[in-house]
UniProtKB/TrEMBL annotation:
Protein's UniProt name: Aurora kinase
Species for this entry: Solanum lycopersicum
Domain Protein kinase residues, every copy: 40-291
Catalytic activity: L-threonyl-[protein] + ATP = O-phospho-L-threonyl-[protein] + ADP + H(+); L-seryl-[protein] + ATP = O-phospho-L-seryl-[protein] + ADP + H(+)
EC number: 2.7.11.1
Family according to the record: Belongs to the protein kinase superfamily. Ser/Thr protein kinase family. Aurora subfamily.
Main location: cytoplasm
Presence of keyword Nucleus: yes
One Pfam family recorded for the sequence: Pkinase
Keyword check for ATP-binding: yes
InterPro entries to which the protein is assigned, alphabetical: Aur-like, Kinase-like_dom_sf, Prot_kinase_dom, Protein_kinase_ATP_BS, Ser/Thr_kinase_AS
Covalent crosslink: Glycyl lysine isopeptide (Lys-Gly) (interchain with G-Cter in SUMO2): K165
């Protein structure tokens, strides 16, 4: 699940993967060295996921602050996600966008794999949403616009994200959103309410396991917009089977509270369309009146 590369020849992927073993921006031969733990000063823990821990770290030579994600090979093996990690790491390392968390590189030792990630100083968006319960229209529109731009960029590179949801978003120092997952969040600790993963953000075609394309991300952006404004996803239900039914029927109901503008509801309704070819294209999302009127043109929510 998660970030997926369309039509990328397998050989190309492996070649690119090799490139990651050089330093982050290495272009010259001299720079082509492998990272080791000795290259970093390790700071405070930033959090933990199923396969290991994330630490604040400083690259000694450049003083660059990063987040170092430490994954245990044994756990990756046990969960059979090594191949997926490889693929996702490779895709993410080639994406360069202000709203996509950079992956600078990786290295490993006998027991662990280390991912060198951009540090998102303001942490998890999910926690912020829990704290506020729901976001203002200005804040939601600013976030949705920045994600629409990031997804347009991804789709332009034939990358479908497939796993847009609050748990996969981090916040940078300026308050800018960063898409942060490696697409294997399906296997990580579930930060939601249920024990076995959430269907809430899946579009009808993925719930029904029929073919899907980049427009799955438009659906998820619509679900996200709803959750930003109402504090819960639109098709939430106690039982998975009910969420499933509500998604495939597009059982979309807008609660009376909090009060949300008609324009926001119009945009959500145009993204949550069962026929994926009829969903509002992301470029049109950016031109929608609600986005134009509410999103901060700087792309950053300043509070
Ligand atoms: P994960 O294993 O990706 O679920 O990460 C575990 C936790 O570490 C997350 O919930 C965040 O709180 C934190 N974290 C992960 N990556 C970063 C990052 N790049 N910058 C700041 N905090 C992070």
């Amino acid at each position: 699940m998660g970030i997926a590369m369309e039509n990328q020849p397998q050989q190309q992927q492996h070649k690119n993967f090799q490139l990651l073993q050089t330093s982050s921006e290495a272009s010259s031969e001299a720079d082509k060295k492998r990272w080791t733990l000795n290259d970093f000063d390790i700071g405070k823990p930033l959090g933990r996921g199923k396969f290991g821990h994330v630490y604040l770290a400083r690259e000694k030579r450049s003083n660059h602050i990063v987040a170092l994600k430490v994954l245990f090979k044994s756990q990756l093996k046990q969960s059979q996600v090594e191949h997926q990690l490889r693929r996702e790491v490779e895709i993410q390392s080639h994406l360069r966008h202000p709203n996509i968390l950079r992956l600078y590189g990786y290295f490993y030792d006998q027991k662990r794999v280390y991912l060198i990630l951009e540090y998102a100083a303001k942490g998890e968006l999910y926690k912020e949403l829990q704290k506020c319960k729901y976001f203002s229209e200005r804040r939601a529109a600013t976030y949705i616009a920045s994600l629409a731009r990031a997804l347009i960029y991804c789709h332009g590179k034939h990358v479908i994200h497939r796993d847009i949801k609050p748990e996969n978003l981090l916040v940078g120092a300026q308050g800018e959103l960063k898409i942060a997952d490696f697409g294997w969040s399906v296997h990580t600790f579930n930060r939601r309410r249920t024990m076995c993963g959430t269907l809430d953000y899946l579009p009808p075609e993925m719930v029904e396991s029929v073919e899907h394309d980049a427009s799955v991300d438009i659906w998820s952006l619509g679900v996200l917009c709803f959750e930003f404004l109402y504090g819960m996803p639109p098709f939430e239900a106690k039982e998975h089977s009910d969420t499933y039914r509500r998604i495939v029927q597009v059982d979309l109901k807008f609660p009376a509270k909090p009060v949300v503008s008609l324009a926001a509801k119009d945009l959500i309704s145009q993204m949550l369309v069962k026929d994926s070819s009829q969903r509002l294209p992301l470029k049109k999302v950016l031109e929608h009146g609600w986005i134009v009127q509410n999103a901060d043109p700087s792309g950053v929510y300043k509070g």
